[in-house]
Amino acid sequence: MAAPKALLLSTIATDANDWHIGRFSQLGSMIETAGQAIDPAFALTITDYPVEPELRKGLQSDLREGVFNQIWLMAVDLDNGPDEDFFPALEAAVRSGTDLVIARDHADLGSCLLSLEGCLTAVGSTQTFKRSWPDLPTDREFIDEACPTITTPCVVTGQNGGVQICRKRADHPLLAFPSMLPGHLLMPAHPHEGVIQPTSDTQTVLLSSYSITSGREQLIAIVDEVPDGGMVLHHSTFHHFADYNIDISHGAPDFVLDPPTKQIEDSPELLADLRAYIRSVVHYACRN
């Protein structure tokens, strides 16, 4: 049997002043460590979406051929995402059994996901977008005059560099590990997480938390498991996995104006649940 392979991919070309894949280096290390615990030959490819046509074709070919057991897709684009040939290739990968982990953020970040069809049609409604939500609530949870570009849909769960307490909502193998608080998980927080919602009976809500602004429940993770295909694991924000949220000393793009906290810096043991969760996802995706 071939050694398992994983892909950690952003939906933008490399841009030093954006959420390029280099800003997810600690996630990459956690994925690699978890995979090699199962199989020392586990291989992880880390890349932004290629600019060069030949590299794009090579990536799309690997996706169509089901080369990867799992894909961690950081959907950080805002109308600067992949070319149109990427989407059917990703759909083919999931049809062939590749597991897909998706993380985006508030408003219309990751809007390229609206181009997914076929077995991934539900992604564009499970992940919510300002531009495609006809009954979008008009309230604006994130009210900060210093950050006027942050708009709904978003939910405030804390500061960058801090944690939120998430409740385990399902008895699922992805959550079958000891956590710091029984029945709960500590995950990196963010001042304006995206909004996800279940849209079919094949989806299971895994984790939820609460807005510190309104008190409303915030869904953190939803898994979609359709027979004869890979799972799709949705997260409300890529900031659960960004270096800046894990360790604020890594810094952020210059458009990030939110004041961070040193909660995790002062108590790094708060990251134990995140590491356990990532390990669980990696191992679950290597189950076949």
Distinctive features:
Rossmann fold, alpha/beta, 9-stranded mixed beta sheet, 288 residues, 18% strand, 22% helix, globular, single chain
Write up this protein.
Strand 1, helix 1 and strand 2 (about 45) form a beta-alpha-beta unit. It is globular and about 50 Å long. Helix 1 (about 25-40) crosses helix 7 (about 270-285). It starts with a strand and ends with a helix. About 20% of the residues lie in helices and about 20% in strands. The chain is α/β, with parallel strands linked by helices and about 290 residues long. The longest helix has 14 residues, at about 25-40. The model has no long low-confidence stretch (mean pLDDT about 95). The protein contains seven helices and nine strands, in the order E-H-E-H-E-H-E-H-E-E-E-E-E-H-H-H. It has helices spanning about 25-40, 55-65, 85-95, 125, 245, 265, 270-285; strands at about 5-10, 45, 70-75, 100-105, 165-170, 185-190, 205-210, 215-225, 230-235. The chain has a single domain (about 5-285), classed as Rossmann fold.
Strand content: 15-25%
Question: Could you list the spans in which at least 5 consecutive residues all have pLDDT below 50?
Answer: none
- Please outline the major beta sheet: 9 strands, mixed
Counting structural domains, the number is 1
Return Rg in Å: 18 Å
Order of helices and strands: EHEHEHEHEEEEEHHH
**Which oligomeric state applies?**
single chain
- Tell me the total number of β-strands: 9
Full CATH superfamily name: Class I glutamine amidotransferase (GATase) domain
